[in-house]
Structure formats: structure tokens, C-alpha cells
């Protein structure tokens, strides 16, 4: 069940321990940091908006407990939304560098597969296009979570469960994009991969989501995922 988590951790270790991979990481880390900071402001704005919409008014004995519950749900939902936005935008913006990371990782294991020779703008736009169908699925789940959130007390809890599952599902599609693109997988083939190894991807995407909530470490997750998934399956 935890094979996916170990795979991601191995990607982080390899990314930081191999000079050839670190050389690519330093090129993209500043951009990812700036994007992360910008999205943090958006997350705080979204959190404040949800708190104003959901926070009850009154002086009943349970008000403090309910307020803490709504605070926890709001910050979690806002954080998940920020992770989704960061992953989609960052994966597309640095797609050529991620491809280079994949090539260098494959070479470490004797895999000879050529680097993507398409222009920078084309690689970025292709990555964005690959995000469209996963985003459309995420939006459907998001609408359901939004509707349920209006049910008193229970609604926000159901919303966070649905949004968490949908976010992990979306994150898996995004983190596999570079590797899948290099192997010419279409959307159906990518979806089949998730279905064939559901526990692997659940632990892989779940750990990625948790680590993306950790300052400084979060900007390593996308390149580390590319490195992890570019290793042979037997590793």
C-alpha cells in the first residue's frame, strides 16, 4: 500500500543526491518559489472568504467547537485548492525542464530515450492541454462538494472528504504527465494506470499532497515526482 510513498521519497533523495539532477533543479526552483508565494496569497483570500460564509453567529455553548471545526475545514479546503492550482500551473510552466529531469534520470538507469525536441512554448501548451480533462473531472467533484457544503455541520465534512479524494486523483494525473508524455500515453492509458495500481497512486499522490503543505519542501515535490516516476518500476 505504501509503495507509492516510498517511490516518491526515493525521487526526493535521488533529486537531491545526484549532481546532474540538482543542476536542473536549481534552474526551476526560483520560479516555483515565486509561484508558490503568489498562490499563498490566493489561499489566504479563499480561506477568509470561506470563514465569512460558514462561520456561525451566536453565543451558544457549542459555538467555539463549531468555529474550530469550520476553521480546520476552511484552511484544509483552501490549502488543497492552492496545491491544485500550483501543480497545474507549475507543471506546465516548467515542462521542458521536467522533461530534462526525466531524461537525466532515465540515463542513470541505462534507459536511452531522446529528449523532447519541441519548442518551449509547445511543451508548455501540451502540458496545459493534458490538464484539461483531469481538471474537468475535478470541477465536477468540486461542484458536488460545493453543493454539499451548504448542509449544516455535516456538509462541510462531506465536502472536504470529496475534495480531498478528487484533489489526489487530479494530482496523480499531473505528476505522471512528464513520464506519460515521454511514453506517448493518451488520457485513457493514463487513467488505466491509475486503475491498475490504485493503492500505489493513492499513496503516491496522498504523500505528495501532504508534503506540498510543508514550506520549502513543497517546491521540490513536482520535480521529485518526475524523477521518481522516471525510475524503472523494479526500483
Note down, in words, how this protein is organized:
- The protein is an all-alpha fold.
- It has one domain (3-230).
- 80% of the residues lie in helices and 0% in strands.
- It has ten helices and no strands.
- Helix 5 packs antiparallel against helix 6 (154-175).
- The longest helix is centred in the N-terminal third of the chain and has 36 residues, at 19-54.
- It is elongated and about 65 Å long.
- The mean pLDDT is 85.
The share of residues in extended strands comes to under 5%
Structural class: mainly alpha
**pLDDT < 50 stretches:** none
Q: Give the CA-CA distance, first to last residue.
A: 16 Å
**Main sheet?**
none
Question: How many H/I helical runs?
Answer: 10
Helix content: over 70%
Mean pLDDT: 85
Give me the strand/helix succession: HHHHHHHHHH
**Tally of separate domains:** 1
Radius of gyration: 19 Å
Number of strands: 0
The geometry reads as: elongated
List the helices and strands and how they pair.
Elements: H1 3-17, H2 19-54, H3 63-93, H4 95-108, H5 120-148, H6 154-175, H7 177-182, H8 187-196, H9 198-211, H10 221-230
Helix pairs in contact: 1-2, 1-9, 1-10, 2-3, 2-4, 3-5, 3-6, 4-10, 5-6, 6-9
Tag the structure with descriptive keywords.
235 residues; mainly alpha; 10 helices; elongated
Q: Summary?
A:
With 235 residues, the chain is mainly alpha-helical. It contains ten helices and no strands.
